[in-house]
């Protein structure tokens, strides 16, 4: 990682040969030193695993951090591997191999991940000796490394079917894709912030007058959670079960440097209040009329294939977020819990200014600090934390290194390979967005990613800690959202992001919960003031507001 120093201007240099693109959709701000060190290997190895399985002509994404900002570069497959890739591609659509991956995820991978995370959370790090705590930090770090790899080993199972769907529908109709993608709505309950544990807790509170009174008492959110957890009844267990699922997941980041849900109790309490008020989940399932209306826009000779492709997208939709929820989003929260415990110990000794500053250290620096054998000083770690808080990806260069080259022509390749690569290219292009013309003083333009229109109050969220300010019906204005944000999604009336495209997280969860989403605006957070009344049109991709 090319790290900034407080005393020198920040320079951006390509981390290797080739062309490098910034990833503002997943990492809208610089990541902690700890995350920048651990993240790239898992992405690269996980992507390589699924690239070979799905017959891609690229090997992986080389992923690096420059001054804390994420950059990636495509690595082509070695010539010696091409025959094996051609053979693998023959099976992808013929056998729908993503179904095998989903079955393995449900049967083996997801249950094993939950078991591992819960076992680590069963340990109270505050009770450990210094040596035991370092061993525990090691265990959590090993788990996070595995989970980053695991997340990205399922990349193609999650995105290839939807990329294939988009490529075909685009070729058949040439129409905007947002409405077609909205036909997946209702296929991924957890992407809409729906958890069985949340349902049980809401029912327990409804049946307890004292709990309802406590929830509306105006007490501090952390105190309300603690009192609910300590109830010697099924209510207490339901609260602990819910927090056991969501509390130690990162709330809106893939970086251990950002808070877990339990650190923003205001957001959790707001979500619980809303669930208690909603005796039933909002019905967001796609209607037959919606399907029929859009199906009629498909040429008749392709409608049977359209139906088949849509079925596959719906089947695989939940894996898009689940592979993060149960992999590195949860493991990152477990890791943060361990580092906060270690940081609290160091802060009590006066060796760092705040417990959370320990994530600003590299792994070797953490080992040195915990063993009292050197390491960075408190002021240096505090400066690293300040840098991350102040910097944003929109201020970093979008490209580094050589100019990007167009993809090589696919003429003469086997049709199965062409289809795989076209689906992948369509999906990847839909994760980001081209710059929009945003010169109008009363309109911010982006990509209409989830159809519908909604008017409400803009809530500009710059950091995870700000999520506690969200109130039911607010319009979220933020740089980007990640998988873990789904915990508080039901509070929102609409979503607007600077980064992202049709397959970005904000677009997907907007469609899943049936609320308008506009993504890829580039500068909505700078253009729209907090508290401003706005109207979001998720079909046209426009956000209207009154000029100041």
UniProtKB/TrEMBL annotation:
Segments carrying the region annotation (Disordered) are 387-414
Coiled-coil regions in this chain? none
* PEP-utilising enzyme mobile domain sequence ranges: 470-541
Q: Which SUPFAM superfamilies match?
A: Phosphohistidine domain
* UniProt-listed Pfam families: PEP-utilizers
* Matching Gene3D superfamilies: Phosphohistidine domain (3.50.30.10)
What is the name listed in the Swiss-Prot or TrEMBL entry for this protein?
PEP-utilizing enzyme
Q: Species name for this entry?
A: Halomonas aquatica
